[in-house]
Amino acid sequence: MNIPLLFSFSPSWLIQGLQHPFLTPSHAILICSLAFLIGQQSKLAIHIILLFISSIVGMLLNYYLFPGARLELLLLGMALIIGLLVVIRIKHFPSLMLTISLLLATLTGLFIGVDSQPISIPGLRTNSVINWHLGAVITLTLSALILSLIAKVLLRFGDGIVLRVLGSWVATSALITLALQYAKI
Fold this sequence. Notes:
By secondary structure, the chain is mainly α. It is built from eight helices and no strands.
């Protein structure tokens, strides 16, 4: 493998990777639900770093071990559970909720990484795939960070009721998307 070829830049594949988390409904719903949960917790930086690292690991697993893996139903199920955790907002056990949210951030990054794959074209160079994955990781991390910061601000209004309503909307979106996956239309 030629090292300069591996790290050469491909802007079209990077842009496609940047768009991927927004164009995949299960990824977008899961990112929103996780960001709202992170916004309710402390240690935002650790959550985002775990999400970043685990998404890179997941994409490497997808590329080398599980090409073509489809985890959409698992991602939607996780989004539903995380959305319900946002709605419930358990305040009595902060260390337990922090541990659960750190675990969910890690699993979210890992599963989204394993579920993310660019279009398979025969003869596609490795640098194009790496650029695509780089774009997807950047979007995943930045969108989770921005939504978490917005959630931190919304947490201050009305004892976080706005954030809890958004959490219920995300949970509902996940449930509707799950139902449509199983519908025979």
